[in-house]
Amino acid sequence: MSPQLRWPARLPVAIAVLVTLAVIAGVAGVAAAQGADPPDPRAAQPERPTVATHAYTVAPGIVEVETGFQYQHPDPSTGLFALPVVFKIGLTNRIQLDLAPGWLRGTDSSGAHAGLTDLVIGAKLRVLDNAPVLGAFSVQPSVSLATGSTAQGTGIGTTSGTLLLISSHTIGGVALDLNFGYTHRGGEGTYAPKDATGWTVSTGIPVSGRLGWAAEIFGYPRTSGLSGEPGIVGFLTGPTFAVQKSLVLDAGVVVNITGYGGTAVYGGVTWNMGRIWTPPPASPKK
What band does 283 get if pLDDT is binned at 50, 70 and 90? Predict the structure, then answer.
C-alpha cells in the first residue's frame, strides 16, 4: 500500500480498465495450473509499508485489511497527514479485489484542509508463479473515483485508470518486488497530470524471528501539462514485526532523493481477518 502523499486519481477510461481486467482474468484462469496457493491462507501478506505491491493474492473468501498513517512536514508552513486503508478480498485462487478509501489532512499558509480521498477500486490478477525471469507475476488494473474534494485538496475531480505490472522473487529468504505502473486521468489535467508513470524496487529482509526489515527505492518520472511536475525519487526503510501470523506491524521513514520533499514518518498494520465465506471445493482433476 502506497504511503506516497501525492494522491493520484472519465467513463471511457473506466470501461477500458474493466475490459482489460476481464481479458486478463481469462489468462489467469488458463495459467492456474502453473503455481500453488500460499501454504497458510490465514497468514498475513503485507503490501505496506512500501509503495510497491507484491504479486501474491489472498486466498478465496479471505479478507485482509491494511491501514496506517503517514506524516510529512516539507517546510515550516506545510504539513500532510494521511490515513490510507486497503481492503483485500480473495475472489478466486488467483484474483484479489482491492478497495482503497482514505483520509487526508493538509496544512498550508491558508489553514488546514481535510477530508476523504479519491476511492480506488482494483483487482490483482496473479498470472504466473515461479516463471524463469518474471518469477511470480501479476497485473493490477484499477479505477480511481472522484470521491475526494478538489477544494480541500483531497481529490483531483476526475476519474483515472491505472495499470500496474508486478514481478516478485524470493532469493535466499529475501523478497524482491519490482513494479511499473501507468496512469491516465480524465479532465483537462488541472489538478493532476493526465498521464503519469511510476516504478519501484522493494525488498523485505528477515532479521531475527518475527522481526524483518523493509527497504525500497521508488520514482515518479517528470510529467507535463497544466499540472506537470518534476520527477520524484524517494527511499523508504523501516522494521516490520509479526505479532502473530495474521497480524504484522510496520514503521519507518521515507526520505527524499530528489523532488519528494521533507522526510516522512509512517506506521501501520496488516491484519488477515479470516474468511467471510467458504469457497466451494475444487473439482477433482481428471
Answer: low
Q: Where are the domains of the chain?
A: 11-32+46-275
Is the backbone of residue 157 left (phi > 0), alpha (psi -120 to 50) or beta?
Answer: left
> For domain 11-32+46-275, which CATH number applies: 2.40.160.40, 2.60.120.920, 3.40.50.410, 3.30.2350.10?
2.40.160.40
**Residue 206, beta-bridge partner list:** 212
**Max Cα distance, the chain (Å):** 68
Please, which residues bridge with residue 281 across strands?
Answer: none
Is the bond leading into 49 cis (omega within 30 degrees of zero)? yes
Helix (H) or strand (E) holding 103: strand 102-108
Q: Which amino acid is at 88?
A: K
Nearest to 18 by CA among 185, 127, 142: 142
Contacts of 172 (CB under 8 A, 6+ apart): none
**What is the number of other CB atoms lying within 10 angstroms of the CB of residue 125?**
28
How far apart are the C-alpha atoms of 98 and 79, rounded to whole Å?
Answer: 28
Residue 80 CA to residue 117 CA, distance in Å, equals 13
Q: What is the pTM of this model?
A: 0.84
Bridge partners (DSSP) of residue 99 are: 87, 121
Confidence band, pLDDT 50/70/90 cuts, at residue 149: very high
More confident call, 22 vs 132: 132
Distance CA(6)–CA(118), nearest Å, equals 12
104-110 CB contacts, 8 Å cutoff, 24+ apart: 104/5, 104/7, 104/80, 104/148, 104/153, 104/154, 105/80, 105/81, 106/78, 106/79, 106/80, 106/81, 106/153, 106/154, 107/77, 107/78, 107/79, 107/80, 108/77, 108/78, 109/77
